[in-house]
Design goal:
With 114 residues, this protein is an alpha+beta fold. It has one domain. It has a 4-stranded mixed β-sheet with strand order 1-4-5-6. β2 and β3 form a beta hairpin. The model has no long low-confidence stretch (mean pLDDT 92).
């Protein structure tokens, strides 16, 4: 958040202010997704761009093994989380497309965290 406040290229920003309704493929129910950040940036050519940013550990971007040796509680949790994230991000992509925005998922690699 300090980064957003101190960066002169970021014209606007908010944290968890946008609500995107989505239907989860896990339970086929309607849910609400609150992406981590909304930012409006000024590009080098003077134009502006609005983005929705989600920050996740990169392990959540990898699809779980669909045929594990044992279907443990941990495996079910990972599978559920993956399904939930895939649905949220698909709806976020569509939301951004319809609102002239860009959607990005950033991981620790993008943020320089090891």
């Amino acid at each position: 958040m300090k980064y957003c406040d101190r960066n002169p290229m970021i014209l606007e920003w908010a944290s968890e202010e946008i609500i995107i309704p989505y239907i989860s493929s896990w339970d086929n129910k309607r849910h609400r997704y609150f992406p981590d950040f909304y930012i409006k940036i000024q590009l080098s050519d003077g134009s502006t761009q609005k983005r929705i940013i989600e920050i996740k550990p990169k392990k959540y971007l990898k699809k779980p093994n669909l045929k594990p040796k044992r279907k443990t509680r941990r495996w079910y949790g990972e599978l559920k989380e993956w399904h939930k994230n895939q649905a949220k991000w698909a709806y976020a992509e569509e939301y951004c497309k319809n609102n002239d925005m860009e959607f990005k998922v950033l991981t620790e690699d993008d943020l320089g965290i090891t």
